[in-house]
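pasting for ref
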Amino acid sequence: MSPTGRRLRWSQLAGDQLEVDSGTQWSEIVAACVPDPNQVYEPQNGSVDSVVAERLVSRIAKGARPSPECLFLVWEGYGDLNGRVRTSPVIVNGLGRGLHVLRGPLELALESIEDNPAGRLPLNWLPLDGAWCVANDIHALSVFIGGSSSLIGEILGDPELEAYYIRPNQTLVSED
């Protein structure tokens, strides 16, 4: 995002100077393509951007009527968690991180987990039937989506989303 509030895609920042793909790191773009790093704000890590979340919910909901019942995971270490999140059950993942578990319709993915209404959104979304998932990490700038070929095709083809295909055997490097 620019200091004026204009949303920028990673590929817009890179222009012709760097080819952006599923393995591109934010630091690569800034180093190669942004002469003044104060011209852009790093994406917020550990949350799905609200505009991206709205598009993902619309794409996922398109193939699922009624809205699927989902589980949402929220890292317990975030400050300013709202009461609904703070009082929800906690599980511990394989990395030893405590995660609050919320349950509700897909649209719950669009509700802030913080007292601030414009705050962070849940890290991970999973319908009870396991048909797809949206995954993020507390340190990640990117969001990963798993699902049917049809759903992934919808997401990759959405002109409002900057999405890249990841091969099943592709090694992903930890983000910046």
